[in-house]
Amino acid sequence: MTITKLGEELSRLRQVKDRDLSLREVQRQTGISNEYLSQLERGIATKPAPDVLQKLAKFYEVPYESLLIAAGYLKERPKDEEGRAIPRDIEAVARTAQFTGAEWKEVREFMTFVAAKRKRKPE
Fold first, then answer.
1. Backbone torsion region of residue 98, taken as left when φ is above 0, otherwise alpha when ψ lies between -120 and 50, otherwise beta
2. How far is CA 28 from CA 32, 37, 117, in A?
3. How does pLDDT run across 64-120, given as a tens digit for each residue?
């Protein structure tokens, strides 16, 4: 048994200092059994149903997508040179264009420029 990325993340979220919840408390608030939560955290259960991840994301107040990535349902989004995730709608272009991190930085700067220009136009 190996603790998974998802297991590590769920355990971390549950045990954050200002939270420090028991598995039973998470069960009470999400309806997911503490036995199953324990199996997820220990890597015994590795592919929870997306609705389980959605409940946990809502409960822990984290992006649903981050738990889908941790569980291996989605690939982590590519990042630009500054470590920022490239938006999914633009990521499709990346698959064919194969931009480098520096090129993505230029694309982001251009998009920021266009957005700023639009804001300056009088209504």
1. left
2. 8, 12, 50
3. 988 999 998 888 777 767 777 767 666 667 667 777 878 878 888 888 888 888 777
In the chain, what are the domains?
5-70 (1.10.260.40), 88-120 (no CATH)
CB 6 within 8 Å of CB 71:
yes
- Rounded CA-CA distance 38/23 in Å is 7
Distance between CA atoms of residues 9 and 93, nearest Å: 30
What count of Cα atoms within 13 Å lies in the side-chain half-sphere of residue 30?
24
Provide the residue count of the chain: 123
Query: pTM, whole model, 2 decimals?
Result: 0.65
DSSP secondary structure letters along 16-45: -TTT---HHHHHHHH---HHHHHHHHHTSS
Dist CA 23 CA 111 (whole Å): 44
Question: What one-character DSSP code corresponds to residue 75?
Answer: P
